[in-house]
Amino acid sequence: MTEYSRTTRAAANLIIPLIKVDRLLSLGVRDQIRSEISRLIAEGALEQGAQLPSCRAMAQGLSVAVNSVLGAYLKLIDEGILSSKPKSGYFVSLELSASPLQGSAKTKTRETTNILDRITKGKLPSKGSYIVRPPDWPKYKYPFVCNQIPVNRFPLAQWRECMRLAMNSRDVASWAGDNQYWDSDEFLQEVCTRILPRRGVAARPENVLVTLGAQQAIYIISSLLRGYGRVVAMEDPGYPDARNIFEQIFDEIRFIPVDDEGIIVDERLAECDLVYVTPNRQFPTTIAMSARRREMLLKMAESADFLIIEDDYDGDTDFSEEVEAPLYSGNRNGRVIYINSLSKSVAPGLRLGFLVAQEDLVSEARALRGLMIRHTPLLLQKTAGLFLKFGYHDALCKRLHAIFEQRIAIASGIIDDLFPQFDIRNEDGSTIFVMTDKAGRDAQMIKEKALQANIVIEPLWPCYSDDKKGKSSFRIGLSAIPSDQIEPGLTLLSETVGTV
Amino acid sequence: MTEYSRTTRAAANLIIPLIKVDRLLSLGVRDQIRSEISRLIAEGALEQGAQLPSCRAMAQGLSVAVNSVLGAYLKLIDEGILSSKPKSGYFVSLELSASPLQGSAKTKTRETTNILDRITKGKLPSKGSYIVRPPDWPKYKYPFVCNQIPVNRFPLAQWRECMRLAMNSRDVASWAGDNQYWDSDEFLQEVCTRILPRRGVAARPENVLVTLGAQQAIYIISSLLRGYGRVVAMEDPGYPDARNIFEQIFDEIRFIPVDDEGIIVDERLAECDLVYVTPNRQFPTTIAMSARRREMLLKMAESADFLIIEDDYDGDTDFSEEVEAPLYSGNRNGRVIYINSLSKSVAPGLRLGFLVAQEDLVSEARALRGLMIRHTPLLLQKTAGLFLKFGYHDALCKRLHAIFEQRIAIASGIIDDLFPQFDIRNEDGSTIFVMTDKAGRDAQMIKEKALQANIVIEPLWPCYSDDKKGKSSFRIGLSAIPSDQIEPGLTLLSETVGTV
User: What is the pTM of this model?
Assistant: First the structure.
């Protein structure tokens, strides 16, 4: 039997420039790729047994969504044109025709060391469940993505000013030099005086650790609290990346359902050691945890002896009249670890986050973060410190609140009429509509159709522990899409939904 | 029995501004702190039972070395003036006089939850072995620290130019927005075309993962390759932070001695799964691994089925005529993972590093890094990409080589005469002198005396698995100290050594 070629991953990528994709064509991207691959096989540019680029490489090369490439490959497999080999990739099918293959007598290529097979226990980091957006989603005409900043409103002039000041020639040592495990004092100070008090949190610099976004805060706390037989609990549905982190680190994850008051607090939590929650706005349902539930959770933390990780990811951009203070602010028992970042207000690409906790825990978290990365880059800490100090962040949040309120007003006026077949939920102060198709159509299919119509939406199923749940729900976010695109985008989406 | 006050950590810090330290006094910093604390107790500003600031808080507040504060506290404990309570801190001794304490009948303060006791298994991240430098070492007059950039030679104008270009208004989305798990294409490309070829490494962007310095590269690879019963080997002496990382992650570390050819390759390596080495310049001995030893190591990796982590930390700043290509360049078996960074040439504070490996491993490392931090901040990646593209890094390395060569010439001319009682080693192309006192005096004591004389040096003992080894060795680095301070600094150090 002829071998599939396994060493031509690099060579495989050479075909990418030969594939033409045109967004303006009415044919979907997936189908364009599919037809182009067929063409290349027909023309002999792709031989039988030849390896295709990975979905990722192809998607990057063509600036299209990975899903589109995957869809094209799967279609071609259905059609018998491609074959897939586990852990190897996609190949032009050997059974394609009866003609003998060229080069089949070539020396067998050296097996690459299969490192991953040998050293992991089936828990590869890439195997998590993710909210998949096209990498180039900002280029889509109607990006209804959730919790993303409106890039066109980024306060560039102010950021540049702060960056210029931070790069002052007298202070080079303070950001270019090795700061060992320490953060920028100025940034810590501003977090304590400018950000935390807005949320009702009183903390001193020694209670704060700067992280690479909220993501790293979750990772550090999880790693620090890892031990034998440790059990972590999280909301179900919940934040997929928290789940992916916990899967890497903990022995067991308990998925606790949420209702209209947030996570259900009952005996299921009693056996847990750590509970991850998003009280201000439950991810992904956007429901705020009720006062009663907060009280129950804090009490049970003490009686059942567990710690709470509170991810306050959207506290700063919540534009409701009265935003509830975080659990941390009523943290009478020292059991709450508070997480927030500048990713939802300033910029996620800067990766500036922080955690707040009691001092001894922060000291150890700092030592562990030191081992992981030393510290968050100091130039960014210094620049952000100035940005906060000058009040630019406060002003930005105010501006965002106004923009978001206006956007919600636009959408609220039309969404019921456009989507009569949907159960539609929008919580006060949130930029997100949670849509559930009463007819039960598959949100993933709606998403794919929408992508072809230049619209990005976010299905809910990756947030559930059981990925058969939430199948007909998706989220529409208004934080990133320009205001004047909301009406045409929703109209087009409603038409697209009609064709599924 | 009267309780020691345990809730006054914040209040404790209030005394810091009352303590006066003057570097110009001939009295050492430690002793100044000691006498100041005594004074405050005498004056009643510090009451019996009162808690003192943590060593760190005090050191930061006074801009002195943590060691100096610790030294002062220990002295005061010896003298019966202070007491220490495990996990609580330092207190003014209750036995100091017979007078009754005020407030001794106060309500017992609430016990803080002792989270760390409960949840870790005695492997606290802070308990590692570190090369301790004063946090404010750049302010010392004679900073003979190792592997640190000369901050006064930082190419600030060029860096600012690149930063300005990176912050172009049309490209905001490319660094402010959420890039999910992806790196900057431009930076990856420049690493492949500008940095790696200088070191004889051929790689494509899909072989490269951007990390937060070399530190994170070690952490990610270790976490990815963790499994039950895994054994990691490292050089002894070796890089303490690698050891600290391995202690967090692996079940067992094998410490393999080094000789004049580098790590000894024998049956001790055969049972290991992962071997961490610093072939270009063994850390901390600065010895280059011989060609013969490299060959043996690569061969054994295959026969004994282990992977090699190659930390090429100083390949770019090595100024010897012919720098050996890394193991990765001869990586015929796909078993070498290459690590490097911009920390030794451009700036450690920026935290720009990378790892190079086969594509499937990089994919998983990328997914894991995604869980940990998503990605290295994109604005820094873009800026560094331009810095590389414009050839500024090449020029910088050339400049550094010239400066370093000149500094070594200055030191080489005088060091033998100044330190006749020492065994002195300086490898070709290295900015470091490894000094061993033939009389066996304690390098830690020399270090402390030197600090008081405004000199920073680095004892070798934290690099040994057995911290009783290497006791009389220390390193003198010339990379960070201004050239004109070398001669007076070495002279003063030689005098200081004479007083130990």
Answer: 0.79
